[in-house]
Specification:
Elements: E1 2-7, H1 15-29, E2 34-40, E3 56-60, H2 66-84, E4 88-92, H3 101-104, E5 110-113, H4 119-122, H5 128-145, E6 150-153, H6 156-162, E7 167-169, E8 188-192, H7 201-214, E9 219-223, H8 232-239, E10 245-248, H9 254-259, E11 263-266, H10 275-282, E12 287-291, H11 296-299, E13 306-310, H12 314-326, H13 328-341, H14 347-362
Parallel strand pairs: 1-2, 1-4, 2-3, 4-5, 5-6, 6-7, 8-9, 8-11, 9-10, 11-12, 12-13
């Protein structure tokens, strides 16, 4: 089967790129499909994640004013589809333009896969005008979502968000599942994500300031792209926690960092899925997470393989972190169960669902 993915780019360190590298590589290397990926303006860019050498990468150049950009996008995609003649197309584009592709391309089975929640479109403290504009855009997306053969979302929360008759839930696959697991003896709590309001590191640092009062020998490590506008470094100084806090840039091999940690803290205000949750669990690291939309409640079995606390309840979040920090037996029990429970996200389980979906549409 010839599968064509259409996306904006695959060179970054984001979750979409990581997931696509796993899915597309498994489809090509293990299941033997012919996989093509079309990206925009990425020619010559180095890849952050590893993609199978069997995958064929194509580029469409788009630039200029909005009218010129859209015109080049439409023609570029039409030309690419005409040349490749795929059996099925999967669109991984969280913007508006990708929603129009079923109306513009030949009648080939076409899927849309949504990797973010609707809430992310509004951003932080949106103005009244932005709420109106984004609201209208999302209504249009909802209408256009019906034109796809299938509309794939990651969680049950996303199903409620879109309320489309063609919706299918397929979660993200794990990007790794180490044979070993963390010893859970290092006095390290880890968090992963960009410095954004969404990731909630501001409230995590507030919790950490309380935790180190009774556990001064523990360290919090945060891996992710820094942003001075988020003022995380200033907040750390203000809370006087610099000696117990380390910031790191993104690393391709995040598994080694999980394996060296004892607790994972997931402080997001909202998410599309929460890829780093299943990655931490794959390393046998118990998680504490806010029950934010969307993802954590689908992933964590609270009080069994980690803890879920009400979104914005920082006191409860602090207490659950303290429980895992101060109780090594509980860490080991929950970490072992996390490694077992997360096996439902292995590529051989998740990508099989994609394979079955592609085959059903092509038949």
């Amino acid at each position: 089967m010839k599968i064509l993915y259409i996306t904006n780019g695959i060179h970054g360190a984001g979750g979409l790129e990581r997931v696509l590298s796993v899915k597309a590589s498994y489809l090509a290397d293990v299941l033997g499909h012919e996989v093509h990926i079309v990206v925009l303006n990425n020619k010559g860019a180095s890849l952050f994640y590893t993609f199978s050498a069997k995958i064929q990468l194509h580029h469409v150049v788009v630039f200029g004013n909005p009218i010129s950009y859209v015109w080049q996008y439409i023609n570029g995609m039409r030309d690419m589809v005409a040349a490749l003649k795929p059996d099925v197309i999967s669109v991984c584009d969280d913007g508006l333009k990708g929603f129009f592709l079923p109306l513009l391309l030949p009648k080939i089975p076409i899927i849309y896969e949504r990797h973010v929640s609707k809430q992310m479109a509004f951003g932080v403290n949106p103005s009244f005008l932005k709420r109106i504009r984004v609201g209208m855009q999302l209504q249009l997306m909802n209408r256009l979502g019906r034109t796809f053969d299938k509309f794939v979302v990651l969680t049950q929360d996303n199903v409620q968000e879109w309320n489309l008759p063609n919706t299918v839930v397929i979660p993200n696959p794990l990007s790794f599942y180490p044979e070993t697991q963390s010893a859970l003896t290092n006095k390290t709590v880890i968090a992963v994500g960009k410095h954004t309001h969404q990731k909630g590191f501001d409230r995590l640092l507030q919790c950490w300031a309380t935790i180190i009062k009774t556990n001064p020998d523990w360290t919090l490590e945060i891996y992710g792209k820094a942003d001075e506008n988020q003022r995380m470094f200033q907040l750390a100084r203000q809370l006087q926690i610099e000696n117990n806090l380390r910031f790191f840039e993104p690393v391709p091999d995040i598994a080694t960092r999980f394996l060296a940690a004892s607790v994972f803290a997931f402080s997001s205000r909202f998410e599309g899925f929460g890829m780093v949750l299943i990655e931490a669990m794959a390393c046998g690291v118990p998680c504490v997470s806010f029950d934010c939309p969307c993802g954590p409640k689908d992933i964590i079995c609270s009080d069994e393989d980690g803890f879920l606390v009400a979104n914005n309840n920082t006191d409860a979040f602090t207490q659950k972190l303290l429980q895992l920090i101060e109780n090594q037996d509980l860490r080991h029990k929950m970490g072992a169960q996390a490694k077992i429970n997360v096996q439902r996200y292995l590529p051989e389980v998740v990508v099989k669902q994609w394979d079955e979906l592609f085959r059903s549409l092509c038949s």
